[in-house]
Give the backbone structure.
Amino acid sequence: MVKIAVLLENTTESSKLKCKHGLSLYAETENHKILFDMGPNDLFLKNADALGVDIADIDIAVISHGHVDHCGGLKYFLAKNRKAKIYLRPQTMEAHYAKVLGIPFYVGIDRALPSADRFIFTDEIHAIDDEIMLFSEVSGKFPLPGSDGNLFMKRNGRIIPDDFCHEQNLMITSGDSRILICGCAHTGIVNIVRRVKAITGEDPTAVIGGMHLYEPMGKHYESWEYIAGVAAALAEVKSSYYTCHCTGKKAYEKMKPRLGDRLTCLHTGAMLEIYSEKIMKTVSDKA
């Protein structure tokens, strides 16, 4: 069985849990306690305490990509946890920007953090053990989100369009269950899901994370045609979808009729138990 707890995302249904634009998920397997992303600040720590998750016990930390809403809490994690290795793509350490009204604003990782001894830079397919695999450099035929065009990186002294080589996804295997966890799906949620089948030969049992159908700076959704196309493509896959963060409420509502009970919207504090192809969603009562 795998337990998932949403330590932080954009929304909350509890007065005792704080929310902010960002993502932080906790996953507990038979052999590991995993932190996937750390949000923009220390709020994930405060929510973890409220939910009974001991950050000091985590043995694997994953940074999905080098944007501050996913890695801004890294320094707080390093201060709280003294043992976990942090798995990230080497390109995460590059400078990343978002343009607002044509002006680039830095949205990348704090590259001054003295934690190189705890960093593990991952390959395109990086197996940690039989349970845990990370994969990146996703490509595919499904079009990318249009809001990717507002994101940039600095390479060789030049600010150029982001190629998202810094983005990676987590795959947890537990018995017959295959749980895909993604941060923002900048390389396209449909392409990422299809990549899982190409690697493993099976569809994921559950897909958890953001789908990047909403761009918060401009408060802009992808076109309804694009969102409907995403829903139709995901409907062809034998997976259940638990979405949050950069998917957006209106996009969720647009996809819900097509995906039905297979699509669930997560909030800060939500908890899942996934086992033997069966998924049970619960809401924490500890907060």
